[in-house]
Design goal:
heterodimer, A: mainly beta, 3-stranded antiparallel β-sheet, two-stranded antiparallel ribbon, globular, B: mainly beta, Immunoglobulin-like, 3 domains, 5-stranded antiparallel β-sheet, 2% helix, disordered N terminus
């Protein structure tokens, strides 16, 4: 599992083993004030690297089933997804 | 440390606690103990109980800000422990770090010696979840104790002699106010994930508090408006507006009334910018292509795919008996939706896959990225 933010690109990766065909929950969080991004898998923190603190307002479209740039497509099932906004959007 | 109580009395923010006339308990003469914390935060609640009287009788009160009559007693002056509430990181609960420190010391003019056969003091910390830890000290050398943690709810000091151990005093410690984000992380035994609207507050229990007042303000520093009185630590404020910052304070309440407010904590509720749930897809049979995954947040951010060959499929009973949207990398399946978040955001997803790492390169020609 991997999450990333631009503009100063920073990525966070989980440990392997979540491709076991069983349901998993991942949560990716970005905090603008600190630039921190956090990835949680099944409630456990996988990493919290620090990226830029700039405003993120791009791209205009997000993607389910692939990386946003249409690479690394997913073979698997998604039961539920939810982006949540903190603060004014 | 001998003599340090003099310094503590001169601190502007040191809260001197005096014996209350309501109690009537006569302090033991010749013994003077000071208790304070090195933390910089002010103590949220200053009501104490005297172990020689009745627990909860509110026999100790702070000077200033407390309406109850107090009687100045030369001996047995206590300085309040001050604490800093720890705010766990989001979104998973963690054990708060060791944020509080308490020092016990004895003034040189009133050492423990006048108490016959005294050998020292024993301390007992009540923690939550229920657990106790003890420490012992023999003044003046062992007079510091730094083991107080944010989850500690009370502290008792016992006098130890050759023949017995007797309670000397007990303090309830101020509630540790924490705020939790609206991220009810659950293990995906069920693929359902329900963001709870509102702000959830939690704090550690005070042993002598009958209830807690929860107050709220839109400004840091108040004025605060009482919004709830709860009997147990914890409260969820559902009467909130999305993306609005609220400031909360909590005070404990006992028979003598409410104590001081805790330090404020700020919370800005999240809101669902989009919400995709497979079992909300209607009108499709298992195996049918998904061209539109409706957004349940009501914001119209539906995830769509106009190209039939790249549409994922709807499969019933695939995850804990519930339907899923199934993607196939070989077919370059994907759905796109307007970006509903910016700056500060959280993405959550329930998935299952057997796909290996660094795979998923499509066989079909790529489309230009946005």
């Amino acid at each position: 599992m991997r999450g990333a933010q631009a503009t100063r690109t920073v990525a966070v990766n989980s440990s392997p083993g979540f491709n076991d065909g069983k349901p998993h929950l991942f949560v990716f969080e970005r905090v603008e004030s600190s630039g921190t991004v956090s990835l949680y898998v099944d409630g456990s923190l996988a990493g919290t690297p620090t990226g830029g603190t700039e405003s993120l307002t791009a791209p205009s479209v997000l993607v389910m089933g692939a990386q946003q740039t249409l690479i690394y497509f997913l073979t698997g099932d998604i039961a539920e997804g939810a982006p949540l906004q903190r603060g004014p959007a | 440390m001998l003599g340090k109580s003099i310094d503590a009395r001169t601190r502007d923010d040191a809260l001197e606690v005096e014996h209350n006339a309501i109690c009537g308990h006569t302090p033991r003469t010749g013994f003077e103990t000071a208790l304070y914390s090195r933390s910089d935060a002010r103590i949220p609640c200053e009501r104490y109980s005297c172990a020689f009287c009745c627990l909860g009788a509110a026999s100790w009160h702070s000077r200033g800000g407390d309406a109850h009559p107090v009687r100045s007693v030369r001996q047995n002056r206590w300085f309040a422990p001050r604490s800093r509430g720890a705010v766990p990181s989001r979104p998973t609960p963690r054990v708060p770090a060791d944020t509080r420190r308490i020092d016990l010391w004895f003034t040189p003019d009133s050492p423990l010696a006048p108490v016959p056969d005294s050998l020292g003091l024993l301390g007992r910390i009540t923690r939550r979840p229920p657990a106790r830890s003890s420490f012992s000290t023999t003044p003046p050398s062992g007079d510091e104790f730094a083991g107080l943690r944010a989850e500690d709810s009370s502290m008792a000091v016992w006098m130890r002699s050759k023949f017995t151990i007797a309670p000397w005093a007990i303090w309830k410690l101020p509630p540790c106010t924490t705020t939790w984000p609206v991220l009810p992380l659950r293990q995906p035994t069920s693929p359902r994930w329900r963001p709870t609207p509102g702000v959830t507050l939690s704090w550690w229990e005070s042993p002598v508090a009958a209830s807690y007042n929860v107050s709220r303000s839109l400004s840091n520093g108040g004025p605060y408006t009482l919004i709830a009185n709860v009997s147990a630590p914890g409260y969820t404020d559902t009467n909130v507006l999305n993306a609005t910052t609220y400031y909360y304070v909590v005070s404990s309440v006992d028979a003598a009334g409410p104590g001081f407010n805790s330090a404020p904590v700020a919370a800005t509720p999240f809101y669902l910018a989009a919400w995709f749930e497979a079992d909300a897809i209607s009108g499709l049979a298992s195996g049918a292509s998904v061209s539109n995954w409706p957004d349940l947040s009501g914001r119209g951010n539906n995830a769509t795919q106009a190209i039939a060959s790249r549409q994922p499929t709807y499969v019933t009973g695939a995850m804990n008996g519930l339907p899923v949207v199934r993607f196939n990398a070989a077919m370059s399946n994907y759905l796109s939706f307007n970006r509903p978040v910016q700056d500060d955001f959280t993405m959550a997803c329930v998935f299952q896959s057997t796909q290996g790492s660094n795979s998923g390169t499509p066989l079909l020609p790529r489309e230009p990225a946005w």
